[in-house]
Prior knowledge:
Elements: E1 4-5, E2 20-23, E3 26-31, E4 34-39, E5 46-49, E6 57-63, H1 64-73, E7 82-90, H2 91-98, E8 105-111, E9 114-119, E10 127-128, H3 131-159, E11 164-165, H4 172-182, E12 189-192, E13 196-198, H5 208-214, E14 216-220, E15 232-237, E16 242-247, E17 255-261, E18 267-276, H6 285-298
Antiparallel strand pairs: 1-10, 2-3, 3-4, 5-6, 6-7, 7-9, 8-9, 8-11, 12-13, 12-15, 14-18, 15-16, 16-17, 17-18
Amino acid sequence: MKKIMITAIAATMAILASTAAMADDGRKVEANGVSFEIPAQLADLVTVETEGLSDGRLVNVYETASVEAAKALGEESDGAGWLFGISRISEDQLKELRCGDMSGMEVFAEDDDMYYVYCHPTDVRMLRESNEAMDADMDQWTELNQWAFENVMEEITGNNPELEPEVFTNTSVDIYLARAAYDPETHFEIRSLQFGDQQPEGPYDDDFIEDLAEDFTFQMLDDDEEAPDGEYIVLAFEEDGVRFDFFLADGKEDFVREVHTLDDGEEFETLYVSSRKDADDGESTTGIMQAWCDAIQNGDYDD
Length: 303
């Protein structure tokens, strides 16, 4: 029988330990300080792993049929049927992660400088022994993934009142702001028509770059969205040929344009809109950039 597997990673797995307890309307999982419920119609379709984990992982959840198919096929690599895992990481670990691509990781909660991350595959981990079995169970696989991504994070924060909801986006803007804030080897400068080129030396009374990196989310806009007209303040990363333009026009202070300049001088642009996590608190992204320029010009250093 032909082996069929939609995944880059398959697994021969040992029997997974589970601390899941049955509830009247589903299967309650209590895993190393977090809890969530698997709906009754899905409870028998998954295997829960809570023991023998490392690197801050609290729980892994797999589709049981894929795990069993991996065993039957004698596959030797890990990952078949993996739906998601929950990890708990430190603030320092989060800062390091935010300086790069976080595909497959969604920060969703925080408690006492520890952060909770929903980890998920970026490829499809469904495995069956035949094409026919794959086709027959595709709806089941889809339902499991929809439940996992759309409900588990919200349930964990709802069931664990000590957790505060948190979110970080991972666009190019986020990555460069995180590098500027947390990586001392990252070099950047600020440019504006008002003050020219400025080399931030700090520390300042307000930590402007951390405010930009931590207090906002960023969303990429469609290619047909036009950048605002007029002046802007530039945050430039010359070593990478990348700059970010923060627009000064009234009503456009939340827009950020990313510009990549190639060696031949050709430029590629991407437009983003920023959203402050606490909508009622503080300046826009451009407002923070303007305040930063003013602080540099006035020498408002932190004693």
